[in-house]
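Re: the request from the purification team.
They wanted to know what the chain is likely to look like in 3D before they choose a buffer screen. I agreed to run a prediction and write the result into the notebook, where they can find it.
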Amino acid sequence: MAGPPTFATPPGFLGITRQDRGAAVCIAGLPLDIGTTNRAGTRDGPAAIRRASRMLVDGVHPQHWTDPRDLDIADLGEFELALGDIRASHALIETQAAECAHLVALGGEHGITLPLLRALARRLGGPVGLLHMDAHLDTWETNFGQAFAHGSVFFHAIREGLVEPRRMIQIGIRSPVDRETWDWTLGQGVTVVTAQEAHETTPAALAARVRAVLGDGPSYLSFDIDALDPAFAPGTGTPEVGGLASWQAQGILRRLGDLAWAGMDVVEVAPAHDQAEITALAAATMAWEYLALLAKP
């Protein structure tokens, strides 16, 4: 290892100090926590992910041989939110996201994805494909009695035409779900890969399936950290046993560099429930893996 020790790394993601929105790739923290989980929330998630990212700055991974810091990249800090007002916060997120050419968002709860997709679909002039890695479908019409919450994100995204359901694949699904929501999701044309199915195949096969679903059009990655088993990511609001291992998620993502990625988020890190930063480090690593794909020549 060369250079200053990691504890001397600046506070931006991967130590990035540039902050202007004119960068080709922008990172931003969206510390939205609307209190719909059963545990302490995600407001400190972006800060925890940035802190954990200091473990990733001492070199490059031989799987990629690329350094995300070589990108035209900036860390914008935290987006402005309207405390306690979901719809106003979503409007602020959408406006700020629209100013970024390519955004990697650090959550915050999963509700941030809806305004991010609104901004992206408007910028691209149409819906996108979606790789959604999660324990939960997040296609409930309402969640904890709220129309806009972290469990209803993709119900609204589909209904608003922000994503193409037949170009949408969900991996890691394993939470309890009512049959009506399950049937509605499949009926829209969404491909659902349960965690059990994922365990019975290989990351290479799953990556091939993702490529087949997403095709050549612009696509978005939404990574809920509870896609990982609580053994690998305990620091989240709604953990579900039987999830993906960290290596499985990495093995999938590392094989997707040939897709037309248009943006990404990693969400639902709840530091109050983390152990030794392993959840925050997993989230930082998934963002790092995504950026490494973008940095490939």
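For the purification team: Residues 278-295 form the longest helix (18 residues).
Please add any questions underneath this entry.
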